[in-house]
Amino acid sequence: MNLHHLLAARAASGNPVRAGLIGAGKFGSMFLSQIPTTPGLLVPVIADLSPDRARQTCATVGWDDARIQATRFTDAGTDLIADPAIEVVIEATGNPAAGLAHALDALKHGKHIIMVNVEADVLAGPLLAEKFRAAGLVYSMAYGDQPALTSELVDWARAAGFTVTAAGKGTKYLPEYHAVTPDDIWQHYGLSAAEAATAGMNSQMFNSFLDGTKSAIEMAAIANACDLAAPSDGLLFPPCSTDDLQNTLRPQSLGGVLEGDGMVEVVSSLNRDGSDVPRDLRWGVYVILKAPNDYAAGCFRQYGLPTDATGQYAAMYKPFHLIGLELGISVLSAALRGEPTGQSRAFNADAVAVAKRDLHPGDMLDGEGGFTVWGRLMPAANSLAQNALPIGLAGGVAVTQAVKMGDVLRQSDVALDPSNPALQLRREMESHHLTRGS
Prior knowledge:
Elements: H1 3-12, E1 17-22, H2 26-34, E2 41-47, H3 51-60, H4 65-69, E3 72-74, H5 77-82, E4 88-91, H6 96-108, E5 112-115, H7 118-134, E6 139-141, H8 146-159, E7 163-171, H9 193-198, H10 203-210, H11 213-226, H12 245-248, E8 263-268, E9 285-290, H13 294-302, E10 313-318, H14 328-337, E11 349-355, E12 364-366, E13 373-379, H15 380-386, E14 395-398, H16 421-437
Parallel strand pairs: 1-2, 1-4, 2-3, 4-5, 5-6, 7-8
Antiparallel strand pairs: 7-9, 9-10, 11-13, 12-14
């Protein structure tokens, strides 16, 4: 709880923390909006495929002309990473292949990295994090995003001596959303395609939030960071209010939905009939605590913490996440404390590609949030046993074997390029995991 004091000391010394941002999209622009009101934190270099657009974004979020003129804009993340002025790299492209390449480049140049790019983290994050730790550098999840905020709740619970029964987030979910495509996404957000286009909203990105892919990716990240397990049959998305978290997210033997203690799960803000769940957790994160003994359970009751009927299970939650507005916490934690705000440390879970429709040889997969596949959470051991295709490798590749709608794609069902650096890093992680497991 002393980040601000540490930052003030850096500012007073004339040596501000210098971060470089790769990808000035929505997450990045929200972060940039906080820079003028965070003395001691500077962003001297911004990399974006469109430097002019990034420059305009800075003006839009409130940067004055002097700050913009003092900033260098480039279209190459490698250029930013190599700049000696940069202390911490922020990877916010959302492209898994680009994210992995930028992480390896940051490692080569001795820079900390904040991986906003959860897609890249789930593809090979456990291995990358190990490489950064070995080099004495920070590889971190992005505070403000749900995986890092959930990891914080889990860390708090365990450090206080509680058992963690479940952790995760809320979202808007119905089973039929798995088939939604970018063509019919906006009706589910109450917008027209024209309104979304005017607002600069990307249909494929927003579709990944709805079709279950983003939930699978984020829960895999949480499972790998917090040493939690993925449900064997995928996420259940039970409808659940904040008042009922401790009753729903407990083992099946007690009337809950979990296979056992220590799971990740996502709760839905919609009942299966489409009606709203009261007091939902659509924008928030949670952790379910299990009292270690009867005395602690009694303290739950004495201090007004709602529990299940056994008195053993209770919930703590954060109702909102502010995405890029909170990202500075990760940057400062890395630069001033040398600590990540969440980090993959195991390969417990994977996000794999499932066919949205019958796929035929010659069809091209279009990746996360597209027309062809959606991402499903799976235990990593099952993913490896099935040679499942990670969702992060399911973009821009051709189908070579027929796959029925609803089936998990295998790596052998598509034409993967063995020279692809992202594939090579993924296979290095898989091999590393199997070696450690044996």
